Amino acid sequence: MPNISPQARALYNEEMAAARSCPDADARWVHLERAHIVSQPHPWLHTRNHVAMLALAVRQHDRREALGQVVRIIVAAPGSLSGRYPEGNTGRTAVGLTTPMRVPADLAAALTAPN
Questions:
Q1: How far apart are the C-alpha atoms of 51 and 36, rounded to whole Å?
Q2: What secondary structure does DSSP assign to 3-66, as a single string?
Q3: Measured distance CA(19)–CA(84) in Å, rounded
Q4: How many domains does the chain have?
Q5: Looking at the record's lineage, which domain of life comes first (predicted)?
Q6: Domain interval for residue 76
């Protein structure tokens, strides 16, 4: 399990804060998805991100998303610890649990920047 770089931690915290403060639900999901991409290698952050996604799904009365997030909460930490997570996956139920996706360019640049 890699240590989280200061840049990745800051990016994760920024995206989670934006998700909490954003008045628009669709925009909240975008911020949570971006935080998910950053959090995947880190068990605690990855799990915490899925808990936030579950909370938003419950607030929106989205049963399908909520159930999908419960499953993801269960597998997030083991997936991170074993390095078996689909890079770039946004963490939503509409996306397959093991489907890799392209990492947005700005996140990729921030995550590969030297410490």
A1: 11
A2: PPPHHHHHHHHHHHHHHHH-S-HHHHHHHHHHHHHHHTT-HHHHHHHHHHHHHHHHHTT-HHHH
A3: 26
A4: 1
A5: Bacteria
A6: 6-109
Q: What is the pLDDT of residues 51-83, one digit of tens each?
A: 999 999 999 999 999 999 999 999 999 999 999
State the Cα angle at 47 between 41 and 45, rounded to 5°.
Answer: 55
Q: Is the overall model pTM greater than 0.90, yes or no?
A: yes
Residue 114 lies in a domain: no
28 found inside a domain = yes
CA distance 24 to 40: 24
Per the listing, tokens 């410490």 go with 115
